[in-house]
C-alpha cells in the first residue's frame, strides 16, 4: 500500500523563511561534480591543496563483546582508512568531497545510513520524509526557531526544560509557555485545557518543544499513550511537534531496588536486536500521519559531543527551509565529522550500530542503578524527599518538599525558591554539585495573559535538584551522593 504525502505547513513559517530567496550560487553547485562541465562558477579551493591525504582511525569492532569501553586492541580493533580521492569502503566519503563546499543537506553516504536507520527505528506513515544533517541538536533547534517563529510568537515547552533551548527561543523574542508535567511527562489534559482556553487575540502556539526520552532536567520519559493524545491535540490546535531526542538510545529497564532480583533480570536481559527494537519507546515520528513532527537526533550522547553532528527527520517540504537556512549559516556540518562518522557507521553496519547502542544501554543501566542505590542509601527515607529513578537518559532528580524545612516560615518567608537557593549553597559547600530545578523553569506569558487556571501548580512548595550519573566514576558518584544525603539530613532535622 502506498503511503500518502505529507501536508503543507508552510503557512506556519516565519517571516524570515518566507522572505528567504535561494542563494543563486547554490543552484549550480551540483554541476561541480559533472565531468562535462568546466566549473569556473565558485570560490572552491582545489582539493590538491587540502593538507590531508588520508585518515587512519582505530575504533572498536562490533559486537563489542567486552563492553563498549574495552581497550581497542586485538579482535576488538577495527581500522578504517579514509582517503582523499578513493573509497576504501562503499560508505566512505572521500576527503576531497567532504572537505569541499556543497551538499548542505549532508553527504549521501551518511544520509543513506541515516535513512536506513530511520526505517528500522520508526514507523513512517507518510511517503515524502527525509533526513538532513545538522551540527547537532543545538544547531537544529536554533534553525527550527528561525524557520517557524517571529518575534512575539508563542511556543510550548515542558514546565521544566533544557535551559539552553529556552534561552535560544527567548533571545529571539519568542514567548515560551509552560505545560505542566508529572512523572510521565507532559500531562495531555492540561495541555488541552491550556489550548482550549487560550486567550483570544493572542498568537496561538506554533509548536511544542519536547524532550520525550530521559527529559532534561527531570529525567522523566513521556508515556507512549500520552504521545498519541498530544498528537491529537496538535492536530486539533494545529501546531508542530518538535521532539528533541539526544537521549533516545539511553533507554533502560525500570530500576529494581532488590539487587538479587536485579541480577536475575540482568542475566536474562541480553537482548537480541529485534527485542531491543521492540523495547524502544514509540516516537512522535512513528505516530505522525501528516508530517507535523520534526525530530532532532544527535550523535552527541551516543558517540561524542565534539562530533557536532546530528540530523533532522521531517517531511521533505519542511526540510526545504532548513536547507536554505543552512546554506546561509553553517553551510554543512564539518566534513571531517561526516567522513569519520560515515566511515565508522558504514563499516559497523546497521547491526553493528545496534550492538553499540545495546552496549550503551548496558553501561547506563549500571550507572543509573549505582546512582539510585546510593540515593536510597543516603537520602533520608521520609515523605519530604522523593527519589525518581529514570528509565532513560543521564539525569536523576530528588524532589523535596521545601515546606518541611524547619526554617521554612521563620527564615525563608515560606518561599520554596529561597530554600532551594540555600540548599544549593549548602550542597556546593559540602563538596558536590547538583543543580537546582529553578534553573530550568519555563517562563513566559502572552499579553494579555493566559487564564490563571493555565498556570495552576498542584505542588507549589516542591523543589528539586538534578544530577547526572554520566560524568564520574561509580566511586565518586557514590561519595558525591553521600555528601548530598548528609547535607539534606542535617538541613531537615529540626
Ligand atoms: C535536551 C537537549 N537538547 C540538546 C542538547 C545538545 O545537543 P547537541 O550536542 O546535539 O547540540 C542537549 C545537551 O545537553 C540536551 O540535553
Automatic annotation (TrEMBL):
Q: Where in the cell is it found?
A: Cytoplasm
Aminotransferase class I/classII large domain: residues covered: 100-484
The protein's matches in Pfam families, at most eight in alphabetical order, are given as: Aminotran_1_2
Q: What is its main location?
A: cytoplasm
> Please, which domain of life does this record's source organism belong to?
Eukaryota
- InterPro entries linked: Aminotransferase_I/II_large, Class-I_PLP-dep_aminotransf, PyrdxlP-dep_Trfase, PyrdxlP-dep_Trfase_major
Q: Any idea of its EC number? A: 2.6.1.57
Q: Name the family the entry cites.
A: Belongs to the class-I pyridoxal-phosphate-dependent aminotransferase family.
Protein name from the UniProt record: aromatic-amino-acid transaminase
Species per Swiss-Prot/TrEMBL record = Maudiozyma humilis (Sour dough yeast)
